Amino acid sequence: MTLAADLLLTNAEVHTLDDSDETHEAVAVRDGRIVRVGPEYEVRFLEGVGTEVVDLDGRVLLPGFIDAHTHLTATGRYLVHADLSKADSPDDALDRLRARADETNSTGDETGNATEEAGAWVLGFGYDESMWDESRYLTREDLDSVSDSRPVVAFREDMHVASLNGVALDRLVDEMPAEDVHREDGDPTGVVVEEAVDPVYEAIEPDAEQAEKLVRAAQQYANERGVTGIHDMVRKSRAPEVYRTLDMAGDLSIRVRINYWADHLDALVETGERTNYGSEFVRTGAIKSYTDGSFGGRTAKLSEPYADDEDETGQWVVDPDELGDIVSRADEAGFQVTAHAIGDEAIEAVLDAYEDCESPGESRHRVEHVELASDEAIERFGELGVVASVQPNFLKWAGEDGLYDSRLGDRRTETNQYPALLDAGAPLAFGSDCMPLDPLLGIHHAVNAPDESQQVGVTAALRAYTLGAAYAGFDEERLGTIEVGKRADFVALDRSPWDHEESISDIGVALTVVDGDVVYDGRKK
Ligand SMILES: [Zn+2]
Predict the structure, then answer these.
(1) Å from CA of 379 to ligand 1 middle
(2) Is residue 2 part of a domain?
(3) Beta strand 187-193 with 227-234: parallel, antiparallel or unpaired?
(4) Rounded to the nearest whole angstrom, what is the distance from the C-alpha of residue 71 to the centroid of ligand 1?
(5) Where do the TM regions start and end (predicted)?
(6) Buried-most residue among 59, 76, 155, 360 (CB within 10 A)?
(7) 13 Cα: distance to centroid of ligand 1 (angstroms)
(8) Rounded to an integer, what distance in angstroms lies between the CA atom of residue 370 and that of residue 262?
(9) Cβ-based neighbour number of residue 512 at 10 Å
């Protein structure tokens, strides 16, 4: 006698995305695992009295998306605090901050006393003055009009610039390096940059309760976008504690691999943590390091100068010697290693460090971003088996007159060479860096990239966001395709990306399933 399934997903166009990439009509799930994939009538044999049946009405069913590079609490901040990324003027940004201040003021208890939250920080994230007609940073004067009794901070999109009101400045200005505090006639304007932003971060670092709020909001947002797993980058944050607490309570609706910053390496070694240790939902991932900066700040490390500054070739955030030391210590302790590298010189430095490891391919060492890799470096990814963990949404900068054009000139078409990486046999994983967290947007950019050398087909793009990301997290045996025996993580789409190549970013997510549970149902009723 066959056991009945817990869940049937029927009347679907099921794409397995495995090597044969077959299409089927239906899937059956029991105990969080896929138990049958095939024609409707065969899958229906597993229907019992208690089986939940979801008719997908002909929709495309795919393995759930795995985002290989996230900062989940950063996404949570946009959701919980004022989201300034949607503001189209300084006034609009201030209105959003005022709304946030009101929202938290009204949480006073019935005696009318302000709660702790009501006296606390008013925060906004993601403003981008370069998109405004009135193109200027927010100032102390602006933010004093939001509140003159509570500290108010608005962060610029890149998090390298923050605007503070008078109360916030009074609290923190003594801890800030003077050269990073903007002044006019000796008085702080409210704008602080670079290292002066650090004391602000520390002051607003969420406690466990606040961090849980951020994670809960962000995991819901991720599920709504078809995300069933993430590789989260974590440094001195409460996020790992929250992930494990929610996991114990059965409240996590997303699988999390925690990539810990190299600062934590000694502590992890001492406490016996190793890559892949953990539960079905929360596992320890890689040790993460930096090498260079970014193109925006002209700090990505280039072999040839920037197109818009011929004296500049970028900077090391972590130089090759220090990187080599981190890589060898982490590798010898049995950890997967990953390093941020954007410019060609930085990418080469990481590959050099990995080449000295025992077996970089087996350890699945990875490079994050890989935006400007030389042809030679691309070949080395394939030869060494090093994972290229890339963000196809960054292709938004690759067009004519885009950021890559101004910083790199002709080299803009040499960025994000996904087809060459695949041809070289490099493991390719897609992620978003939460800019924003949205796999279909990234897939859209990869399929519709400005240059042929950056474009991949729909199937290849979907694979990089499913099986490719699973591989980067040692998860290809349990996740990443729709096959019998794998965990039941799925996303159903309202339209077929193969039939709507030019508008993939507009396709709606209809249903998200994690471990056999429906965690999001966006079907029009
Ligand atoms: Zn990142």
Answers:
(1) 24
(2) no
(3) unpaired
(4) 6
(5) none
(6) 76
(7) 34
(8) 19
(9) 26
Question: Are 273 and 190 in a shared domain?
Answer: no
Read off the pLDDT of residues 344-384 as tens digits, 9 standing for 90 and up: 999 999 999 999 999 999 999 999 999 999 999 999 999 99
Scan for tokens 């045996």, then name that residue. Answer: 477
List the strands of the sheet with 509-514, edge to edge: 23-24, 13-15, 60-63, 490-493, 509-514, 517-521
Grade residue 160 by pLDDT with cuts at 50, 70 and 90. confident
Going from the Cα of 393 to the center of ligand 1, the distance in angstroms, rounded, reads: 13
Ligand 1 centre distance from Cα of residue 161 (Å): 17
**Above 50 in pLDDT, residue 112?**
no
> Does 59 fall in a domain?
no
Mean of per-residue pLDDT scores for the chain: 94
Q: Is the pLDDT of residue 118 over 70?
A: no
For residue 70, the CA-to-ligand 1 centroid distance in Å is 6
Ligand 1 center–CA 142 separation, angstroms? 30
* Same structural domain, 368 and 470: yes
Q: What pLDDT shows up at residue 351?
A: 98
Q: Please, are residues 214 and 434 in contact by the beta-carbon 8 Å criterion?
A: no
> Does an H or E element contain 444, and which?
helix 439-447
Return the pLDDT at 111.
47
Q: Which backbone phi and psi does 55 adopt, to 5 degrees?
A: -85, 115
Calculate how far, in angstroms, residue 434's C-alpha sits from the geometric centre of ligand 1: 8
- The alpha carbon of 338 and the centre of ligand 1 are apart by a number of angstroms equal to 11
What pLDDT does 297 receive? Answer: 84
Interval between CA 67 and ligand 1 midpoint (Å): 12
